[in-house]
Amino acid sequence: MESKKFSLLFLRAKLARPGALLLAVGLILFAAHAADNTLVRNQFTPGQIWHDTAGQPINAHGGGILFHKGIYYWYGEAKSGRTFLPDCNKSWGGTRVDVTGVSCYSSTNLYNWKNEGLVLRAEPKSPEHDLHTSKVLERPKVIYNRATKEFVMWMHVDSQDYAAARTGVAVSTKPTGPFRYLESFRPDAGVWPDNATDNEKKPGATNTFARDFQKGQMARDLTVFVDDDGKAYLFYASEENATMHVSLLTPDYHHTAGKYARIFIGRSMEAPAVFKRAGKYYIIASGCTAWAPNAARMGVADSILGPWRELTNPCVGNDADKTFFAQSAFVLPVPGRENFFVFLADRWNQWNLPESRYVWLPLEFSATGDAVLSWRDAWQLPDSNQSLRAAAQN
Ligand code: GAL
After folding, report:
1. CATH fold for domain 52-392
2. 3 state DSSP class of 200
3. Largest CB tally within 10 Å, which of 8, 32, 81, 359?
């Protein structure tokens, strides 16, 4: 009893000192924060730090989601370490981090994500390797090949100055890897696009895709899309980022098949995210302003190789012209919730790239079929019998 009284007095005396008080408040705040990191989540909070089930910030940028046997897998760029400032001697003026690899997280409900580790690793000892630390690895996307039972990862690999502009491919027998890197290449070497005119194909033609005819087409920001019939397609910013291409993949999904089209010619679109709704194909993309946000672009087509028709920016409300300070990465159709899509985007922090955040928003369709993206501070997936609009207002 005496000793309890003594310690209480002692504590009171300690707390009376401002330094000790601050310390106590700090400890309480730290404890509350640590608890919050590991909270089980039941809502999305776009733009906030998103912790995994171990309480660490999720590190999966420019990513995409694969749904396989009841589990969602989120793959993305693992960005860590120092952000390097622009090298003024190069034509490229953006910041960068060293390549570490591709991360993977798994979830059964899209809110709570378990870190599955790096499923494709950088190759720090091989300066010539596409995955060497000094190079660029962006926008990894994984698709599942039902025929070969293989998981195939496509990614943008590049030289530090972004001049190489190539696609890289890696494969795994398990969604959680490890993925085996196959190669990189420029798509569709020696093949003309389906929709090139005779004039554009004439010997001596000076257009960009004719220039790159022999060595293959430039490929930077990309995504892959698997259609209902199992055919897969690669969408990528090509022709110095001025024009997007869509290429059919080979049946094993390891390569482009030599059939492709030019879409959104001269519109300088990148960060493509492709999905299908009610028999039509949709794309959401961005303009080309490096890490800085701009107004989202959208397009629709009846046939995946086109023609594609450009729609207006689906974002509405404040900061719609900046896509809510984010850039498209993926659109996820949520299984079991018909007609419900989640728009996944990156809010880049160009001066500290690992601090970049995620902006996930519900993608709604109006009665007339127009897509709408509006900002939410917090929102939940609709129950299967609840309308999205009602759920999104939660
Ligand atoms: C963006 C692109 C990103 C990354 C960045 C580099 O335009 O979408 O994936 O390449 O430029 O600045």
Report:
1. Tachylectin-2; Chain A (2.115.10)
2. helix
3. 359
